[in-house]
Amino acid sequence: MNPVALLFFSLLWARVFAVKEYLFKNCAQSGFCHRNRHLATQNFESPYFVDPASIVHENGSVAGTIYKKLPSNDVVALPFDISLLVGDSVRFQIDENRQPTGPASKLNPRRFRAAETAFDGPENEKQQVLSKDQVSVSDNGVVLVFGPDNEFSARLDFAPLKLAVSRHGKVQAVFNARKLLNIEHWRPQKENSAHLWPYESEFDMFSDSFGDSRDDTKPFGPESVAADVRLIGFDHVFGLPEHADSFSLKDTTDSEWPYRLYNVDIFEYETESRMPMYGSIPLLVGVKPDAAAGIFWVNAADTFVDIKKGNSNTDKEAEKSKDHGSLVDTHWMSETGTVDIVIILAATPEEINAKYGQLTGHVSLPQQFALGYHQCRWNYNDEKDVLDVHAQMDAHGVPYDTIWLDIEYADKKKYFTWDKEAFPDPEGMAAELARTGRNLVVIVDPHLKTGYSVSEGVEKLGISIKDRANSTFKGHCWPGESVWIDAMNPNAQAYWDQLFSPGSVLLGATSNVHLWNDMNEPSVFSGPETSMPKDTLHWGDFEHRAVHNAWGQRFHELTFESLEKRTQYSKRPFILTRSYFAGSQRSAAMWTGDNMARWEYLRASLPMVLTSNAVGMPFAGADVGGFFGDPSNQLLVRWYQTGLFYPFFRAHAHIDSRRREPWIPGEPFTSHIRDAVRLRYRLLPTLYTLFHDASVTGSPVWRPMVWEHPDSDCYDVEDQFYLGQSGLLVKPVTEENANSIDIFFPANERYYDFTSGHVADVPPVALSEAGKLSRTVSLEDIPMYVKGGSVFALRDRYRRSSKLMKADPFHLVVGLDANGVASGKLYLDDGESYDYKNGQYTETKYEMVAGQLKSQVNGDTNYALLSSLRIEKITILGAQDISSIEAKQDGRSWSVEFVQHKHYVEVLNPRVGAAANWTINVVHMPRHEKDEL
């Protein structure tokens, strides 16, 4: 067997059995991380300083030159720019004007700017005006003052170079506090010694000694960029997905694994690990009781982030800001690219989400079906298998919206084709699914098997990724030898559009078939670290090493744009991606990849999905049941009871896993699974409302406890969460054989028992001090609570799919706080088109004060699709001793029936509209009548 084939089959074997840590570089094995981490251990005088004479204030920013002093006393000029971005964020950029010789002279000398893919639109549109009266320049530095009432300021010191950003006069973030700024400038290899200080390491500067990376030619030699940022007064930081690790990020200084951001196909990944995974979002969020801070490192190259937690009592900036106590030092190290850092300050982490979204875009509002249940495995064998699963779901009363096809549907894994023996009539199959409002998702990966029309078209048009000799790169993946379309090439879009156009072989004339983009890290079985060689070439003559983490994003964006064009921009596309980057939220959902059917992976899914929500990528989920292996019936039930809350809810399994569709386990497990899936559908109105909020404000769909209560001791709470701002508190059961669980409750709030989505006639939990309470659970129990002060909507009637629920009435749940007050909202539109952008929607705000529940509608109250919708029931938690209830709408009033329970009241058929203004008055019994009773 030849060496390439041997490696190919060994990697296939590895995919089935375990992650192989030796295939992936840790920091010590990665040249640029090794060198920069070494620098952090040295005592040295920083060689970087600003030339005061170079400062220019024009075009809304402050620009100048940073000089890097060399041992020869020569200097390297590095242009820099400080600008204000929308949301009053500070952007600091440092570049290099390279003029390489040798092999690098054939490449683009410009360092790649990841903002070109991460930002939502042109960079200049994200920049705020910086007027002269906001800027003060002296011989020692530059000071910027900005924001409402000059809330923010930024001070750049010229020597030693340092940028401190403050809010309300308190320094919150300091760039280069530890003087770890390092820009490895261009130099010929033969002159390298003249460019190195004694304290610098030269490990792997011009070659790569790691395993299967040894062939990397490194034409630019060392080109890493690194910098440190200190957060003052912070104990806890969050973000930096994707890692199967804790929600609150750990101190990494004594570990061989800083948090690595490098998109790879990592097989059965380990839990409690900082190894790289499928996606990368280089955003870190710090939270403390009175403030929040974000660090956005805009770089698409291989990146490591070290975190060091310490004490700020000796920090000069902390002394100035009177913010003694803790600090978090972060050290960002990337293989190439520019220094491009955005520092975001705010009062709350929710504001950080909003400001970050102003730069990179908020999540796109999905079609409503995409929030339903997705049934998937590798693979449903043929049309009969698909339609049998479809029928069995109905026979067992399990609602679902989408069934999925993995790679075996295609003829010999040639994407954009069908295996005609197994799927002779794909359009007919899709039409049968559509009869009950169901959808089909098919997979299209970026590797294209050589020797058929699609891959030949890519080569003919010159839109493939090239090898270092500028010929089409060929590697191995599922189909065998493959080529890859270059998603960075703007000319690729037209070809991709053609493949997805109406009447195409793959999609035909269907309107209910959607896409799954997998393996887009990109995964290359024959490549180093199971990915693309770093010296392959992309459009614009950029090396793959410069664009790697953004490439998967560009690939799913190709698909998104093609699907929009397919429907003439009338329908919102649905795409699932495995690889992602900052900005991916604009066009795709993600999932956590190839997990295992074990309890620790169920537990790990909670901090992973929370982390994704914390950094603006809320449409996230994990494979329910675990991808690899066979879950026990108990684990499968508990995973469904957790997964029903995932923003993206899909069951998926490996080709070698036993069948585990909801009816397979038998009773009582099938009933528990059915109840969980049905609860998801009852919650769809609330989930859709939360996604609309996220699409407008960037708010998380899974809201971390610390986002809601930064003043409570819940920074480490990662096993429970709120469903957005609905007031629903969820604590999934993730321990085997659990008969009790501990739930954290904040102080001075009411929490009403809502286990498994059912009201319990018991007093609310109300603690005077934050803490944990223990409660019993059985296998059917899904611990849920309603926070006092909340209103949210349900749809209680069972339907086979979300599309069949469109005319169903709503059930409002009102949870009163200690003052008898509650508020919430319900967003409605047609659930599939972009018409909501033209005003065809309603957003109804509900508020209950002093016994009066009011509905106030914003939007088109005459929108015919919504005007007939009704509220059929209102449950008011905490309402007692009610004597009468009256409803008013459109100038009319009428009495409403109700049932009084001990701790809540059910308002029956109030006959009010779901998209209408109305008032419901709840009259309490006079005191003497209650006494008589």
List keywords for this structure.
933 residues; 3 domains; eleven-stranded mixed sheet; disordered N terminus; endoplasmic reticulum
Strand content: 25-35%
Profile the largest sheet.
Answer: 11 strands, mixed
Number of helices: 17
Low-confidence stretches: 1-17, 928-933
Describe the global form: globular
Our measurement of the CA-to-CA distance between the termini, rounded to an integer number of angstroms, reads 89 Å
At the first level of CATH, the class of the largest domain is Mainly Beta
Strand segment tally: 52
Radius of gyration, whole Å: 28 Å
Task: Write down the overall mean pLDDT.
Answer: 96
CATH topology of the largest domain: Immunoglobulin-like
Pathway: Glycan metabolism; N-glycan metabolism
Family: Belongs to the glycosyl hydrolase 31 family.
Organism: Clavispora lusitaniae
Domain Glycosyl hydrolase family 31 C-terminal: 698-791
Describe, in short, the structure shown.
One of its GO terms (cellular component) is glucosidase II complex. The protein is an alpha+beta fold and 933 residues long. It has 17 helices and 52 strands.
